[in-house]
Write a structure and sequence with these properties.
alpha/beta, 141 residues
Length: 141
């Protein structure tokens, strides 16, 4: 099971230990703002009628990060997709995973109350355009 980390811990891991941030939100969510330097491989795609599973998720991650020992922080909007993505990647053999459980927007309890501020509210570096080669289209060419 991937170790849970806060946004601040995730930033430290990126800065000091060479972790990459894998944002598993949909393309429109990623384009609206994401952790600076993040890679985007959606666990689910936005479609008519809601979110649709990305059946190629693991294959796309394997193409972008072929080393199963790659240091990856998995994040989403509020923690649900990142947990599911980390479980899929762990089952595929990835061993250095961290689940940034507060996501970009913050984790909430069952009543919708904020439990942990997300990346954006924590005041961490944010970007609205991907670094070259880190957006979903580039990663799946």
């Amino acid at each position: 099971m991937a170790e849970k980390v806060t946004p601040a811990e995730a930033q430290r891991l990126m800065d000091e230990e060479g972790y990459a941030y894998l944002d598993v939100r949909s393309i429109p969510e990623f384009e609206g703002g994401h952790p600076e330097g993040a890679y985007n491989i959606p666990l689910k795609h936005m479609g008519q009628g809601g979110m649709k599973e990305n059946g190629d998720f693991v294959k796309e991650v394997e193409a972008a990060f072929p080393d199963k020992g790659a240091k990856l922080i998995v994040g989403c909007k509020a923690g649900g997709r990142s947990k599911a993505a980390a479980e899929l990647l762990e089952a595929a053999g990835y061993s250095e995973l961290r689940d940034q459980f507060a996501g970009y927007g913050g984790s909430r309890d069952t009543m919708g109350r904020l439990q942990e501020a997300g990346w954006a509210a924590a005041g961490l570096p944010v970007a609205t355009s991907a670094e070259p080669g880190r957006d979903h289209a580039s990663l799946t060419e």
